[in-house]
Design goal:
Length: about 240
């Protein structure tokens, strides 16, 4: 009887581990033109993902979200695999997190797409494309999002297996024009919008703009970001973010 229970427990453990360390199959975006070489953007296995370089950038907005991470980024395993861990998004009515990795450099057309189960993780092999192309992993940003009945909600990812307390999430934007001003505000959607926080460092077009945000745990909050070029009008994006 005890041996039978041990077998059941062991099988359950295997199923649990596998369910929390696999990527979910997904179609590759059709609006990317892959580079004509072995590192071109295409479907890749182990884990199931789309990754590589593309020759023609997609049309984008004047403001871009590049990264949303918790903790010390990019501490690869000895075999150059990086563990990407998604938060539990079942409270949002979602079962998976869509992850997009992009180079922080404006003229580097690199991208990786992978879908991770809620509260699950996946091991991303950096050697397949990133290191083979001479990219530095720390110059890549990752963004996770959950598709919900309220629309797309962004969630912070972890790139560490440590259970130690982590700092507040860091979110990175990029302005595609030289901004004379960059502002942001984070607030509960049930409250009036607060005053803007002004980014006080000099910014040039294409520069990564890191912000430290602190969303309330277990709550969907609003993150507004706005920028204005020296001779132009304000451009603003309105995001929903979730603090796990």
């Amino acid at each position: 009887m005890i041996r039978h229970q041990r077998k059941i427990w062991f099988k359950t453990l295997i199923i649990f581990c596998c369910a929390h360390n696999v990527a979910l199959a997904q179609p590759c975006p059709a609006n990317l033109s892959p580079s004509d070489n072995d590192l071109g953007y295409r479907r890749r296995a182990t884990p199931e993902r789309c990754e590589g370089f593309y020759s023609r950038p997609m049309a984008g907005e004047s403001l871009e979200l590049l990264s949303f991470l918790i903790g010390s980024p990019f501490d690869p395993l000895p075999d150059h695999r990086l563990v990407i861990t998604a938060p539990d998004v079942t409270a949002l009515g979602a079962q998976k997190v869509n992850v997009i990795a992009r180079a922080l450099g404006r003229r580097i057309n690199y991208r990786m797409d992978v879908t991770v189960p809620s509260a699950g993780s996946v091991q991303w092999p950096l050697g397949a494309v990133v290191l083979a192309a001479g990219l530095k992993p720390e110059n890549i940003g990752l963004v996770g999002s959950a598709q919900t009945s309220e629309g797309n909600i962004y969630v912070p990812l972890r790139l560490t297996t440590s259970d130690a307390a982590a700092p507040s999430p860091k979110i990175v934007f990029r302005a595609l024009i030289d901004p004379s001003i960059f502002m942001w505000r984070l607030y509960d959607p049930s409250d009036p919008a607060p005053s803007w926080n002004k980014y006080n460092r000099e910014i040039k077009a294409g520069d990564p703009i890191p912000l430290t945000v602190d969303p309330v745990a277990g709550k969907v909050m609003v993150l507004d970001v706005a920028t204005r070029p020296h001779d132009g009008n304000f451009s603003q994006i309105h995001l929903k973010v979730f603090g796990p």
